[in-house]
Amino acid sequence: MNIQWYPGHMTKAKRAMQEDLKLIDLIIEIVDARIPYSSRNPDIDELGKQKSRLILLNKSDLASETWNDIWAKWFQSQGFYVVKVNSKSGAGLKQINSVVQEACKEKIERDKKRGILNRPVRAMVVGIPNVGKSTFINSFAGKACTKTGNKPGVTKGNQWIRLHKSLELLDTPGILWPRFENQEVGKRLAFIGSINDEILNKEELAMELLRFMMKQYPEVLKERYGIEWEQSQELGDVVLNSALEQIAKSRSCLLKGNEYDYKKAANLFIDDYRSGRLGRITLEFPPEETGEALKR
Question: How far is CA 84 from CA 18, 54, 55, 76, 206, in A?
């Protein structure tokens, strides 16, 4: 699979972000805890290198708790502040205010020395499409401030939101980067729904996700769909097609004449993963754990 997606509005959004950087003290970057590295836009590191940085591992309830902790420690070792959150349930959100104050401690002290008291911290909220930025802001604010949706590209423009006297947030549209040099990154983004589904071949995508799951989480596939195979088998097209057929069989995905509906089975499998019905599954691991360099 070759996956690329960079709609025109993202170029405009990136320019607006560059303009607004001079107004803010902190960048709050939302990432998907299932793919914490692949769901980071590498342009943000360049744009925000002079700013304090906070990473929120969002949707942490959908990722392995063990790997959540390992990823949090890894990002902290890179100089980031980190909080694990679930924006839908509100888990972890109460920790954020104190972490923001800690991340901006030097700025707050400078203001005090200049006689500037109680100026709110201004934070830009950034992230790629569909990582839950708007859901986070609405949950954090305790009210509906922004539009939300389960597909990428809902937020189109920048918007200031005053939360309380010590913190203001600037919501920004989700932006990707112009080209994925590493197609593994493109696939992972497609798995979680950050790529427009309309440009994807969902059957191919499902088989790529099956390939990963059969290596890393075979017990999940066996329990939910009854998929079994010899662990020594190479995971080629024949084995992956057989696994997709088993999903169709177990979920009664049938066409006329009792033929299996592979397209329906692929969509069902991907939806099961995205919604968390397959359990807490992390799709990538820090380089120290794999012995491989992370590339975007």
Answer: 27, 11, 9, 12, 28
130-143 confidence digits (pLDDT tens): 899 989 999 998 87
The residue count for the chain: 296
- Please tell me the distance from the alpha carbon of residue 161 to that of residue 148, in angstroms, as a whole number: 15
Judge whether 75 and 55 are in contact, CB under 8 Å: yes
Give long-range contacts, CB 8 A cutoff, 24+ apart: 272-280.
272/224, 273/191, 273/209, 274/191, 274/192, 274/193, 276/61, 276/62, 277/224, 278/213, 278/217, 278/220, 278/224, 279/217, 279/220, 280/61, 280/62, 280/63, 280/64, 280/65
**Which residue, 160, 82, 73, is CA-closest to 123?**
160
Reported pTM: 0.87
